[in-house]
Amino acid sequence: MVFSEKYRPKKVSEVSGQSAAMQSILKIITHNSKRPGAILIHGPIGCGKNSAISAIAREMNFEVIELNASDLRGKDQMRKTVRGAVLQRSLFNKKKMIVIDEIDSVSGREKNGLIELAYLIDQSPYPIFLIANDPYSKNIASLRKKYPLVGFKKLESPDLMNILKKICVNENIPFLESSLKKLALLSGGDARAAINDLQAMGKGIDGEIAVSKRDQEVGIFNALRTIFRSNSFAVTGALNNVDMPAYETMMWIDENIPVEFDVREMESAYHYLSKADIFYKRISRHNNWHFATYSNIFITAGICFSKRRVHEGFVSYRRITRLLKMWQSNKSLKEETAGKFGSAMHCSRRKIFREMPYLKQIYGNMSDGHREALSEELSLNSGEENFLLEQK
């Protein structure tokens, strides 16, 4: 299981470094219980905004309904989705919290949609959390003027160290204080990134956690250069900052191994790439994220140490073509299917992506009649039905 999910705060007291923000949220909710309105929550990536809301909901026995602003385009879509979330009774007869993530991604041209959202917020008996990375975006100026802002700050190194130390103790990972401190500093205040780095690196040389510098702007080309040109085990952190699915990253590496390696080195490099692919498939099939550590080691250190020496000179890396188009086609099917499930279940695509292996299993185990009824209700086309029936 991914550490960032396994160690997500379950209680308000477990939320690190955000006591002022938590107090503000609780005060607003409790003082406006009949017509709570909305709270515009903002802060940098990885500071705990969503985790804080989940912890509050758990303690107050609220059901959380997650929506994503990228799915709410225009007045009609806003009314249909948000109104449904507001008016629909909880399945478990609980109070509800409605979370609309990435609200600052709404286009400034969609003013009618924002006007409709403000109207629905005023009618809602439930608190609505609007989450933004940039609260001062011109796109949401009207919301910023109307609803209270609660800011989450970048996490300090001591807070991050405490989180990492707790995980190391619980997972029996040997560590040095100096390594945890370095990992906390280089994460840039992003708890999710620090935790993912910790899980990806696992046990370093002599029990020390090996860390590499986190560059927030690193891209796939820099990551390739790090993997192909390094001679240190710290290369295991080369992909930490690449905002790209693991399988697409493997295709980039596959495309460029012949550019950097001779024939003998290529044999070893492709051996480790195939091992990484095997573990990736196991992750997809069994939803067992413990395999992510092994896949990462094979795809970084395994390939890195396949070469006999570090090559010199400039190399122009190639972009992937045919394989990427195949992958993007499948990705498009996944996104379209997730969008339809998300609209019906009143939750974000991100949530559906996490639950997709279970949804595919449920769909595959349905009787033909029930499957046809669900497909009709969600307006699934044949491509989306086949995607759900695939067993990877």
Q: Any overview of this molecule?
A:
With 392 residues, the chain is of the alpha/beta class. Strands 2-3-4-1-5 form a five-stranded parallel beta sheet, with helices on both faces. Helix 4 packs parallel to helix 5, helix 7 packs across helix 8 and helix 11 runs antiparallel to helix 12. Among the domains are: 3-151, P-loop containing nucleotide triphosphate hydrolases (Rossmann fold, 3-Layer(aba) Sandwich), CATH 3.40.50.300; 156-205; 323-389. 56% of the residues lie in helices and 7% in strands. Residues 204-218 have low confidence and may be disordered.
Radius of gyration: 23 Å
**CATH fold-level name of one domain:** Rossmann fold
What topology, given as strand order, has the largest sheet? 2-3-4-1-5
Tell me the structural class: alpha/beta
Shape: globular
Give the helices and strands as they follow along the chain: HHEHEHEHEHEHHHHHHHHHHH
CATH class of one domain: Alpha Beta
Strand content: 5-15%
Determine the fraction of residues in helical runs and give it as a percent range: 55-70%
* Main pleated sheet: 5 strands, parallel
Tally of alpha and pi helices: 17
Low-confidence stretches: 204-218
Average pLDDT reading: 80
Cα end-to-end separation: 18 Å
